[in-house]
Amino acid sequence: MSTMLAIKELRSYYGQVQALHGLELSIREGAVTTLLGANGAGKTTTIRAVCNMVRSTGSIEFEGKSLMGRPTESIVQYGIAHVPQGRGTFTTMTVEENLQLGAITRKDIKAIGADIEKMYAYFPVLKQRHTQQAGTLSGGEQQMLAVARALMLRPRLMLLDEPSFGLAPLVVRDLFGILRKINQEDKVTILVVEQNAQLALELAETAFVIETGRIVMSGDAKEIANNEDIRKSYLGY
After folding, report:
1. Does 111 have pLDDT greater than 70?
2. Domain 3-79+156-235 carries which CATH code?
3. Backbone dihedral region for residue 138 (phi beyond 0: left; psi -120 to 50: alpha; all else: beta)
4. What's the CA gap between 190 and 7, in Å, rounded?
5. I want to staple 155 with a disulfide (CB 3.0 to 4.6 A). Which of 81, 91, 101, 171 is the partner?
6. Closest CA to 25 of 47, 8, 49, 41
7. Quick check: 190 and 160 in contact, CB under 8 A?
8. What's the mean pLDDT in 82-91?
């Protein structure tokens, strides 16, 4: 598989505070990759840098094209979808209106309708709630809606920031099972940022471990999951 996203010498800043220090990672097309680390390690900043939401220097290339300095809306047009931490749904809009908004850049009206039905097949609870305001959904349902709305873009790369945050373990298992299905059936490349390292390593093929803005470990996800020293030193389980 070819490299889809390549990040080199990435340095990111919040005001005068530097959050990333020459970070480097690459994501293979068609793969699920996870970025793991403690709170404040730089996981969310890495995703924000890809979407040009934080001041950064270095190199970020998507299929050989530089993303540095590009407006967020043009990054979306490349087929990169971002599911932020905290869901990011439009709470006063219905489930179906949120899904339609996810396809706002598309013009294939018939295909949009078919894709909404496809989202309902992935997430049957959303079908049951399709006229309900997003703000009245449970946390798990809102996360499902956020993922479904991102998929309405028909992305080639989906960036997920802490999808398990605040969710019950059973809901998290269901959600990660759907993410695996999306990767395998729809061929969506996924980068998932997670604190639930054990679950993320089960989902991913490749893992990167970040500490204080630097990649300190990378490799096959199963090998990292089976390495007790790495788990205890960096992943906390």
Report:
1. yes
2. 3.40.50.300
3. beta
4. 15
5. 81
6. 8
7. yes
8. 84
**DSSP SS3 for 57:** strand
Q: 58: phi > 0 → left, psi -120 to 50 → alpha, else beta; which?
A: left
* Average pLDDT of span 169-180: 91
Instruction: Name the DSSP class of 133.
Output: B
CA dihedral for 73, 58, 45, 184, sign (positive or negative): positive
- How does strand 214-220 pair with strand 55-62? unpaired
Q: Which residues contact 221 (CB under 8 A, 6 or more apart)?
A: 34, 200, 201, 202, 204, 205, 206, 207
- Alpha helix (H) ranges present in 16-69? 43-50
* pTM exceeding 0.85: yes
Residue ranges per domain, the chain? Answer: 3-79+156-235, 94-154
Reference 206, options 189, 218, 190; nearest CA is: 218
- Adjacency order of strands within the sheet including 32-36: 80-83, 157-161, 189-194, 32-36, 206-211, 214-220
Q: Do β-strands 157-161 and 189-194 pair in parallel, antiparallel, or remain unpaired? A: parallel
Taking residue 230's Cβ as centre, other Cβ atoms within 10 Å add up to 19
- Taking a C-beta distance cutoff of 8 angstroms, is the pair 93, 134 a contact? yes
